[in-house]
C-alpha cells in the first residue's frame, strides 16, 4: 500500500492568454516505499470549489484525468519564491525538476518545503531490514540537522556557466536578508552569492546568471 506523507490544497501557476494564473490544485505526497515510488500527485481542482478552506470532501475527490505525477527522484531543488505575487495568505516556492520548473503557492509554504526536501533529498540506507532503517531521517544526518531556516540542498546542473564558475554536485542554498548564497554542503562556507536586486528576471527565466555572482 502506498504511504501518504502529506496532502492538502495549494495553487499551481500556469499561463492563460499570455498571463500568469494560479490554478487550484490538491497535492498528495507519497513516501518512497516497497509498495511504490516516492512521488507527488497534483490534481486540478478548479471545478471543485472551496479549495483553500478545509472543505474538500474525499468522496468528491479530484478527477483522475487531471492528475499530474512528479517523481521525487526527478527533483533538483526546492527554493522559496519571494518575488512571486500569489493568492492571499499563501507563499510561493519553486519546484525544480529534470523536465521543468513548477511554481507553487501554499498556505503553509514552510511546512511543504520541509517535508518535500525531507523526502526528495534524503539518502536511502542499503538494506530494508526494518521500516525504521529503510530511509535516513534528516535529524540523524549531521549535515541536514545543522541547516537553518531558509536553507535547502540543491544540485548544480552541468552548463557552460557552472563550468566557468567551477561548481558541480550538491550545495546548500541559503536565502539571506540581502542575497541568495551558495554554500559548501559540508563546511557551510559561502561559494557564491546573488544579491536580490539582480534577480528580477529569475521568475521568468528560472536561471541565476553567474555574472552577477560574487565570491
From TrEMBL:
<dbReference type="Pfam" id="PF02174">
    <property type="entry name" value="IRS"/>
</dbReference>
<feature type="domain" description="IRS-type PTB">
    <location>
        <begin position="148"/>
        <end position="215"/>
    </location>
</feature>
<dbReference type="GO" id="GO:0043410">
    <property type="term" value="P:positive regulation of MAPK cascade"/>
</dbReference>
<dbReference type="GO" id="GO:0007169">
    <property type="term" value="P:cell surface receptor protein tyrosine kinase signaling pathway"/>
</dbReference>
<dbReference type="GO" id="GO:0005737">
    <property type="term" value="C:cytoplasm"/>
</dbReference>
<dbReference type="GO" id="GO:0007265">
    <property type="term" value="P:Ras protein signal transduction"/>
</dbReference>
<dbReference type="InterPro" id="IPR001849">
    <property type="entry name" value="PH_domain"/>
</dbReference>
<dbReference type="InterPro" id="IPR011993">
    <property type="entry name" value="PH-like_dom_sf"/>
</dbReference>
<dbReference type="InterPro" id="IPR002404">
    <property type="entry name" value="IRS_PTB"/>
</dbReference>
<dbReference type="InterPro" id="IPR050996">
    <property type="entry name" value="Docking_Protein_DOK"/>
</dbReference>
<protein>
    <submittedName>
        <fullName>Docking 3</fullName>
    </submittedName>
</protein>
